[in-house]
Amino acid sequence: MWVAKKAEMCSEMRKMIKKIEKVLFSNDLSRTFVGFSKTIFPMATTQQQVGTLYNALTSGSKIIGTIIADSDIRIDGNVEGDLQCSGKVVIGEKGHVNGTIDCQNAEIMGQVEGKVNVQQTLALRATSRMKGDVHTQTLIVEPNAQFNGTCAMGKQQENIKKQ
After folding, report:
1. pLDDT digits (tens, 9 = 90+) for 114-137
2. What gap in Å lies between CA 102 and CA 118, rounded to an integer?
């Protein structure tokens, strides 16, 4: 009887593990798994494959210094220092950056204090709080987004980089 009960428990555990694996490794890119050093985010551009892994700083984490990322990165924690990214930077609603951000594209939903240099598109979502200087080609500001600072766009931005 004990052996039968143990076999039944093992079978249930295997089923639970398969369900968890199915959720973790599915192609549903809208899921975020807190605690993983790399997470799947819906940030892929036309040149990148959907389902690629991205860098992430989870809520409750703090980095003091410079972050250099070769691919997209999502910040839900705190960064005090510079962030240099070859791809897209996403600052989540709980994210806070105090420093300079240099990247291709950026989407801000949290708080940023400092200088932001974006080569293509910067999107300030409704929950964002931006304080500082912005240099970008395209700026998207949603209603209720807070932006206090200066903005240079287009050819002005190219001139600023040369100086």
Report:
1. 999 999 999 999 999 999 999 999
2. 6
**Cβ–Cβ under 8 Å, residues 155 and 138:** no
Mention every residue, 6+ apart, whose C-beta is less than 8 A from residue 105: 45, 87, 88, 89, 118, 119, 120, 121, 122
Q: CA-to-CA distance for 112 and 115, rounded, in angstroms?
A: 9
Please give the Cα distance from 87 to 69 (Å, whole number): 8
Give bridge partners of residue 83 from the DSSP assignment. Answer: 67, 101
Its pTM surpasses 0.85: no
Q: Which of 53, 59, 92 is nearest to 71 (CA)?
A: 53
- Measured CA to CA, the distance from residue 7 to residue 20 in angstroms comes to 20
Q: pLDDT by residue (tens digit) across 60-115? A: 889 999 999 888 999 999 999 999 999 999 999 999 999 999 999 999 999 999 99
**Which amino acid is residue 133, in one-letter code?**
D
